[in-house]
Amino acid sequence: MSDSELQDSFISHLVELRNRLLRAILAVVIVFLGLFHWANHLYSLLARPLLRALPKGGQLIATEVTAPFFVPLKVTMMAAFLIALPYVLYQIWAFIAPGLYAHEKKLGIPLIIASVILFFCGMSFAYFLVFPIVFGFITGVAPAGVAVMTDISKYLDFVLTMFLAFGITFEVPVVVVLLVKAGLVSVAKLREVRPYVIVGAFIVGAIFTPPDVVSQTMLALPLWLLYEGGIIVASLVSRTVPIEDDYRPLTDAEMASELDKSEHPPGN
What we know:
76% helix
């Protein structure tokens, strides 16, 4: 391939990448515009776990002038991105798929689908199970005479951090499968380092959750169980006999026979 052909190919790939990115961004913008009218309702839905845990008369507050407008806007943008995420991932997949082998494509689609589902499961786990316990603990330990009123911007930052922590945590099975399929680690090695993973899970739980044992355990326990699930899935998908196992070096007699055939071909 000449230099001009290489340059044309590179430019065509850049053009395709630009078009894919524009389609993904446009999808997020369209969903955002459709949700904009319900921005305040979306924030109220996001704040519901804390509002339910607050004592009677408790409420959220806005300490910045623009916060009542921009915070619901950020929540709406986040919701729009999550709704459009399958289409965004499809655009990414459509760009990289032509350069993959058939077996990589066969494995890639299930992993992408599983990644999206697991991330949403992690966010749902945080919202429906972790938040009520965490906020109940926080409001329960407040000293007498202290009114718990959280700033809406700080609450959004906390929620996003928790969503990311639990969403990424639920991606552990996908990471484990990818590591095994890439040959970077074996299933036996994953089982061997299990004690270190358990300790690391509780360390991660202590870093990303409030300082109470319950919420730390609610992050560490799923992380460990999902790691075990990843080991099971990886052991199932890796139960194929490697091509290298079919190779057997020739014996001396077979080597001599092959040399004899090459020196004295049939018919001569």
